Amino acid sequence: MKDQEEIIIDFTQINESFLVMMGAQLRLVLNALFTGEFFPVTVRGTRSQVRSFTEALAGEKRYLSSFAQHGLNNPKTLKDKFKLNRAVKSFERDTGLVWPFK
């Protein structure tokens, strides 16, 4: 296993450069979730920010997996999309940021 630079997502340090980097970092994290590859990630912020971030990220993975496996109009995919939308609303409320994968 090669050494990888740790991704740090810090909701306590939100500025313009954070917003630019966040989308790219989340793509790397999602890719790691789908491939099972280890990728060091640290998430900082309030408890609710970290929780809502992980729930939105997990919801994104669940929805994309359902879409790939069952198709767009399958009831399971639609249910997972609904859960993702709820998680995204919570993330946006807790952080004041727009979820990058809408």
Q: Would you write up a description of this structure?
A:
The structure is a single chain. By secondary structure, the chain is mainly α. It has one domain (7-94). Helix content is 64%, strand content 8%. Strands 1-2 form a two-stranded parallel ribbon. Helix 2 (47-70) runs antiparallel to helix 3 (75-95). The model has no long low-confidence stretch (mean pLDDT 87).
Summarize the structure.
With 102 residues, the protein is mainly alpha-helical. It contains three helices and two strands, in the order βαβαα. The chain has one domain (7-94).
Give the helices and strands as they follow along the chain.
Answer: EHEHH
Distance between the termini: 33 Å
Strand order of the largest sheet: 1-2
Structural domains: how many? 1
Helix content: 55-70%
Mean pLDDT: 87
What class, by secondary structure content?
Answer: mainly alpha
Q: Main beta sheet, described?
A: 2 strands, parallel
Radius of gyration: 14 Å
Low-confidence stretches: none
Beta-strand percentage range: 5-15%
Write the layout of secondary structure elements.
Layout: E1 7-10, H1 16-35, E2 41-44, H2 47-70, H3 75-95
Parallel strand pairs: 1-2
Helix pairs in contact: 2-3
Task: Note the main attributes of this structure.
single chain, 102 residues, two-stranded parallel sheet, 2 strands, 64% helix, 8% strand
